[in-house]
Design goal:
Length: 276
């Protein structure tokens, strides 16, 4: 039986004789069901017209994207480390070329995912590399295909490899997570934010939303909590979920400045662009 994949969010469901009637991730208010209705494909069909591309951003950081863009269009990151390589976030497409290239670079010791919109085919990635997949327990209900070596972690932080720490920020989802890598950016620290913190086009600010497609904001206290959760961590660089969305220097200050701007906007404390 085929395993059907939602074409709107890229999530793969367990094998079934016919497509699911709905995708609960898309039916949720943080995503959307396309105007034409829920669409479905399979991994074999996807691979016929798509391929993954690799781009190196710094010596031990490679971004992986699917071309042409599929579903939400996020990128994953392969972070190379002597303590074991980590895949941050996930893509729907996993093919022979991708597996061959990653194995040649040392394989994967672990996979960590920021939030349910990027769960995609995480069970297949886990099986291909024998790697555990870490997702926050607060988002357990959104796992529709609990295969692979799935690990639900709890609390507000977890070191996944030496110098690599998952930080639960919440906001976009209850378990919304970012990755702090102390050795990134030539030792100045890097933050991999998914879209729990969305890097904006000016590449000087980030923003925070409950739903990006439906333009649903978060409250001021939630954004202040996110900023507070990140305050103990040193990072100069931020890698966002999408291509060309990275802040190459001044990342900590960008988060502080952005959180203050956002709180002013949603709380009526003054012009949103004051001192930005």
């Amino acid at each position: 039986m085929p395993a059907f994949i939602c074409t709107a969010c890229g999530t793969e469901f367990p094998p079934s004789p016919s497509p699911p009637t709905t995708c609960p991730i898309c039916a949720d208010a943080r995503q959307y069901v396309p105007a034409g209705g829920q669409g479905w494909t399979t991994l074999d069909e996807l691979a016929r017209g798509h391929a993954n591309t690799f781009r190196q951003h710094e010596p031990k950081v490679l971004a992986i994207r699917t071309e042409p863009s599929f579903a939400i269009g996020e990128r994953a990151f392969l972070i190379l480390s002597d303590a074991g390589n980590l895949l941050w976030d996930c893509l729907t497409l996993i093919d022979d070329a991708t597996v061959t290239l990653i194995r040649a670079l040392g394989g994967l010791a672990a996979i960590a995912i920021s939030h349910p919109h990027y769960y995609t085919t995480m069970a297949r990635w886990s099986d291909a590399f024998g790697a555990p997949v870490l997702v926050h327990a607060a988002d357990r209900e959104w796992v529709v295909n609990p295969g692979g070596k799935l690990v639900f972690w709890e609390g507000d932080s977890r070191e996944v490899r030496a110098g690599m720490t998952l930080v639960r920020c919440g906001g976009h989802f209850a378990g919304g997570t970012v990755l702090h890598w102390a050795d990134g950016a030539e030792g100045r620290g890097a933050l991999f934010s998914g879209d729990v913190l969305q890097v904006l086009p000016d590449r000087r600010h980030v923003s925070f939303m409950r739903s990006y497609p439906n333009l649903t904001p978060l409250s001021a206290p939630v954004v202040e909590r996110i900023a507070a959760r990140l305050s103990p961590y040193r990072f100069d660089r931020i890698y966002g979920a999408f291509a060309e969305r990275e802040i190459m220097e001044g990342g900590e200050e960008a988060v502080r400045r952005s959180a203050e701007r956002y709180v002013r906007a949603v709380s009526g404390r003054g012009p949103a662009d004051a001192e930005s």
